[in-house]
Task: structure prediction
Amino acid sequence: MQIKTILPVVLAAAVSAQNATMNLTSLISSNSNLTGLATLLNTYPNAAAGLANATNVTLFAPSNQALQAVESVLGSANGNTNALVAALLSYHTLQGIYYASNISSTPQFPHSMLNNTLYSNVTGGQVVECRLEGSTAEIISGLKSIANVTQANLNFTGGVVHVIDSVLQIPGNFSSVAENANLTALLGAVNATNLTSTLDEASDITIFAPSNSAFQNIASALGNITAAQAAAVLEYHVINGTIAYSSSLANTTIKTLGGANLTITIENGTVFVNSARVVNADILMTGGVMHIIDSVLNPNNTAAANATQSGAATAYSGASSGTAVPFTSGVPTPTTTIVDLVTSTAQVAASYSSVVAAGGSGASTAGAGGKTSSAGAAAMQTGAMGAAALFGGAAFLANV
Result:
């Protein structure tokens, strides 16, 4: 828990005991690291109303520096800022009380209070990932943005507060996450098979997402594939009705959206899906989670991994690679690699392509690649839509 930068354990316990009789707003107002958050709550009282009487919760409270870093990079937000700030605050609030001692090196995915279907289609509320990296407690949100806990275990009458050094990012929908993760072949294939709205608006799904190189490695097998065949392949990469985070994956078989089974195998800590290797796990989405894999799955070849497997396997016998990445025509050109997702507040803010207006069903919003789409049950924000964009141009940090 970054012991060297957090209050010593004994002192922290004493401070927590004192704070246990304070309500949340009083605790925030009394902490010099949270004056920006206090001003935010005062600026948007309607959005903050849900926190006023919260009980049995854990709040990850962005520090003054975290809020300043976000505001300084982004311009003005459009739309209903109150609704956006409410979503932001909900996402920073976990259901249940999690003390520092509850966070371990094993990733956990507790549910937040974010249940607004404009931003989350995860049953029980959108999650964050919590884990210890060495002695540092990391809170991981959309685009794998990492916030570190810098002050822990501040008790109040309704739960506990942990101060974090960057703002959590609300996860985007499938299209936006695929674009920002530079899974352009997958995104192009989904667009070509008219599955985009299905995945963007889905609830409780797991997607095993092939990398661009995975598609390129079997380019010859994709040259004459029909739309129906391509759709069947894509549906074989989706688990419907189950969100399988990395900590819950085990040796098992599981049914896909298309009805066929996948085999999950754990070999020396590496997760295989059939013979494909998971190379980047737990990328949060509006409707669930995405795991990037190093080869394209084949519903007609369900061979599982074996102990001697090395390198990327192929489930398409005789397929050869091509010079170009399939399905990427008209899809934005990749700018990062699959292992180089955004990992800092500054990178997240700099990657924002646009700010989305909040709205109810039918609101016109910017989608992946700058296209507009009609917001239905699921969030339709751009891929980099996150906490920073929620603040707009409000001068709530003026007195920090």
In short: The CA atoms of residues 363 and 375 lie 5 Å apart.
